[in-house]
Amino acid sequence: MPERDVASWNTVISCVVKDGMYERAFELFHRMLAVESFRVDYFTLSSLVISCARCFATKEGTAIHAYALKIGYGANLSVKNALIEFYAKCGCVEDVETLFNRMHVRDVYTWTEMIDAYMGFGNVDSALEIFSKMPDRNCVTYNALLAGFCQNGEGFRALRWFCRMVEEGMEISDFTLTSVLHACGLVKDSKSSEQIHAFVLKIKSGTNNHIKAALLDMCTRCGRMEDAERIFHHSPLERSSSIMLTTMICGYARNSEPDKAIPLICQWLHEVHDDVVDEVAIASILGVCADLGFRKLGEQFYCRALKCSLLRDIGVGNAVISMYSKCGDMEEANKVFDKMPAHDIVSWNSLLAGYNVNRQGGKALEVWKKMQRGKIQPDTVTCVLIISAYRHTNSNLIEHCKDFFRSMKPVYNIEPNSDHYACLVGVLGNWGLLEEAEELIENIPFEETASVWRALLDSCGIHKNAIIGTRAAKKILSMEPQDPSTYILKSNLYSASGRWNCSELVREEMKERRFRKFPGRSWVINQDEVHSFFARDKSHPESKDIYSVIDILFMECLRAGYKPDTSFVLHDVEEHQKVNFLLCHSAKLAVSFGLITTRVGKPVRVVKNIHMCGDCHTFLKYVTVVTKREIHVRDASGFHCFADGECSCRDNW
């Protein structure tokens, strides 16, 4: 252009910010300033502040704030609204509140930004207070509230406010529907999801691709896999689209159906073109590969991300770290972390979580020390991971853990919540301090949730403390009587005490209420195929050989000192039948298949969707003695690396 004015510069800067080219926006800004007698305006500053918020450029954002004050735009409404978004992403709640309280003029966007900010900081009640004080509300405000509830796991509250929104005659947008479908997924209630599903179809919004993907996601989260498959297969034009494929793949993985997820992942890899591949899809698929323990496929998507230049996106890099971590390779996870051009708090959390799932608490704490040296501000998730790391240290560092817990509020301005207390209870229980853990729960300064009692109950199972365990179980039953997991707990407690009729009645009630129990499932990946097993499974084409191997291993392990623990069989059968039931647990079947198919010298790798039972754990220790092979099992608690009759978890999981 022969002549450029401020509008020309603003248009270009705004466009590059919308396209996520944040560094380019800063370059244009500096070129703009270099023009003599040229003056930026509020639109320029707002665009740049938003750019800083989205790329977490804290230093640049505060500099632009100072520059805005210097040239007289510090009180401009548009600039201040952008600054609220910036400090919500890159600052603390006090920064946002100070900015808001000093604003003499506010619009609907200002109030909505404050709701977003409070929800982002986890201050749900403060967000509701802001909502109640708003002079004017619209559908965007309600949408911010619904999205915030979902962000904080408050599915029931989101559904209640959606009903209120409908009653008040507010406009229902696609964004509203995706939020309420997400809320249904959080609640995991089949009946509620069917009602919302019908509502969506009634107002004829089911044709939108994003709405269909949200419906698909909701169905998979509520256990309605047949309905999910029907939506997916009845959308032939969109089946090969990235969003539908990704959602269905994540649904299969979430419901522990790896044999159905893998073919779709391969379809995604070969059919989705590079021009429609985006960061969200790649990160989601990498997450599925991580959950399934399928490293080879995960690395193919890592290469695809490299090819499409997507590794500049922090979210994709974080997903690669998680993939290697969950496949048991922290060395590669560290290399990816070190190669990333920038890190956010999720990057650090991914590294911490990786060390925790691999039971390397000492190394997780080394990462935390590195964060402290770099003055990285932790978030609530970071604190959960740091506390959890003390479960996996080689020595008892419980006092250090308590010191960190006590420092959360005064040093990092993070109020300990139920998750932090549950983790601390787990650490205390892990090191055998069950009485102290129970006392901690009783002195929680707010109404405790069932999660803290579940942490105590799990610890009682490790240390076989039936007295405290019974008290914890009673608390859980009284606090969450309608939760599906509580029904399972109640049924198992009845079975363990021999009250088989009561156990059966509970299970019948679960069927009537359409509650679903995830069956235990274990799988091995061999020659790029998933070989999946349930308990007493004989569907595998090599089941005859698998059961022969189990019989041989059982006899050899008995000679080596193994004693079957039939207390883990919660069925009303004879004692000899209980031993047969134990031998047919899915983990034993998967390991036996792995011993047949895995090359000698390579560890047998198994993934299990729930916690491994105590008898399988003991049995596999003996298997490593009689076979002289390593066995790596990743269950819901993390990795168990069996070798020479020992396990990396030190029998605490």
Features:
34 helices, 66% helix, 653 residues, six-stranded mixed β-sheet, mainly alpha, 6 strands
Architecture blueprint of SSEs:
Layout: H1 6-18, H2 22-34, H3 42-54, H4 58-70, H5 77-90, H6 93-101, H7 108-120, H8 124-133, H9 139-151, H10 155-167, H11 174-187, H12 190-202, H13 209-221, H14 225-233, H15 242-254, H16 258-271, H17 279-292, H18 295-307, H19 314-326, H20 330-339, H21 345-357, H22 361-373, H23 380-389, H24 398-412, H25 418-430, H26 434-442, H27 450-463, H28 466-479, H29 484-496, H30 500-512, E1 521-526, E2 529-534, H31 543-560, H32 575-583, H33 586-597, E3 604-608, H34 614-627, E4 631-635, E5 638-643, E6 646-647
Parallel strand pairs: 3-4
Antiparallel strand pairs: 1-2, 1-3, 4-5, 5-6
Report on this structure.
66% of the residues lie in helices and 5% in strands. With 653 residues, the chain is mainly alpha-helical. Strand 3 (604-608), helix 34 and strand 4 form a beta-alpha-beta unit. The longest helix is centred in the C-terminal third of the chain and has 18 residues, at 543-560. It starts with 5 loop residues before the first helix and ends in a 6-residue tail after the last strand.
**Structural class by secondary-structure content:** mainly alpha
**Shape assignment:** globular
Name the strands of the widest sheet in spatial order: 2-1-3-4-5-6
Radius of gyration: 27 Å
* Beta-strand proportion: under 5%
Cα end-to-end separation: 67 Å
- Largest sheet data: 6 strands, mixed
How many helices does DSSP assign?
Answer: 34
Share of helical residues: 55-70%
Number of distinct beta strands: 6
Average pLDDT taken over every residue: 88
Unreliable residue runs: none
